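Handout, section 3.2

Students often ask what a structure token actually looks like in practice. Rather than define it abstractly, here is a full record for VRR-NUC domain-containing protein. The first block is the sequence as you would receive it.
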Amino acid sequence: MAVLPKAERLALLAQSTYGSGTGSNSKTASKQRRTGFRQVSAKQLPQHGNLSLVEFNDLTAQQEKIETNPHKQEIIRLDARPDLISKDREHYEQTLFFDYVFERYPEYYNFLAATPNGGFRRKGERFRLCAEGQKAGWPDCQFACPKLGFHGLYIEFKRPVESYRSISEARNALKPHQLATLRMLLSQGYAAKVAYGSLEAIAIFESYIGVGGDYDNVVLFCPKSVLKPPEPGEVLELKRNAYEILEAEYA
């Protein structure tokens, strides 16, 4: 039997999940050990004979390259399953937006983040997340980069208008407490918009960073008359409390 050189044996051993100290009956261990290597699943292994070290390194390098852009990885998965896109179109559109920024504007990408408010939560999990500080109505995306005199940009995501049954249904998708949160952020010097789909989000983002037209006049489904700064003394009804706009904030 051929014996690998010491350097190659060590390289393979570094990827091995065997003998990692996790119990053999552990569910986590069983998931990790489908092939015995952390970065390769059984489906990726060739169905013919052995896998050389060079082939193994190529496989792991390819996977690592994809994982640097998880948005692209998810887009590929969903494009192969249109039924999953239709079940959660908002997730798909937000993923498209993050992928666009990742590819086109790497200098800004690290300042952009999502807020995991969406999705079904069991009562206990919902309470735990609220206790940690997660807030219903907080915008889906935040861009922590000051531009155009604003402290930063917040975007509330909705699926594209054409995916709703009617115009009124699309308008009602923006809940009152979500609108109130956006207007509260406007009162504190932040930019805030509602994006119906990835194309609107891209238009908002590019106009904010100064490469895609006038930010104040970007054409969006949500009219400017709806998302406007609050007046002094106005009380904004949030999900669990209220926020009063003080005169001092406009001094």
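Discussion prompt for tutorial groups: The chain is about 40% helix and 10% strand. How would you have guessed this from the sequence alone?
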